């Protein structure tokens, strides 16, 4: 995906939390020549609350470990397993984080809630984008690994977003009340218990017919049912999640709305075998949708625009000429474009991808075509390749445009 709609994650200066341990609590009591029994009721409650915050249920640990192992087993993970001390000094990294540290915190029960775990993982990617060149191996590997994380994270939480939003509101609104910790812990345990017991299985089963119908309409060139269900799912996300939303998160959501059997994310293409690597030689189609019962193969190119770049205009219409300010990770500067330009660039990009797909399988890196082991391509009668650019603005509005169809003399089957 182009850098035009990518943003480095924001991190808080107070990323690290200070946790009161039993040892430090005991030391304070000894210095004051006090015992737990002699403490006032309010102080006893506070000490118990701090102590309880360090305890982790097996449900939370299993939830986080499941996602962590998905990252750990990825071939790109080795670059982020342990940070280099020299890099921290040379690049002046303020808040270093790596997978080794995350694993250690999991093993030592240091995560008290899901947000802490997510923040550490996202800090890894934030450091990756902030302190590495946009064309470097580490930077590109970080984008791939972040996409894996977002997909896995959304698979587990997409049906629980409203509950999670309620949990955060309870924690924020009741922070100063005596029962704030009890409410927070109760809500969090409820989310984790539902995950562990797969309560959402029934919700998913109710949703599957709708998803199947949207897919079936999509492959017969009717995108509207798919757009409607995408709107519904995006509307379930809390406003708090918009600050960290990006194209990777959008792609994870879109993938969750498609049958696993009939779509391939990040389809690898050789665009021009004569060009050097990093100069337009390769391309990656966001999502390639295979036809099951329909007549068309569908290509999707996804674009995401943050509301942050549009907020100065206070305009909710978001027209094509609406100016959009964004941070270019490649050039390390703030640039300005328009919604229309982002959409048109996406159309040009998608048309070039579809033309390459129509050529069939690439023989090697020096030719042009599809170069992806997940798909089998064979000669056949003519088939139709169609595509859509889907532009999402802050998870609050969806714009989409079709591109010109292309005839292909190949069939495409997921291996």
TrEMBL record:
Signal sequence coordinates: none
Residues in Bromo domain copies: 91-139
Cross-referenced SUPFAM superfamilies: Bromodomain
Keywords linked to the UniProt accession: Bromodomain
Record flagged with keyword Nuclease: no
Pfam families the record matches: Bromodomain
GO biological process, one term: chromatin organization
Source domain of life: Eukaryota
Gene3D superfamilies in the record: Bromodomain-like
PROSITE patterns for this protein: BROMODOMAIN_2 (PS50014)
Protein name: Bromo domain-containing protein
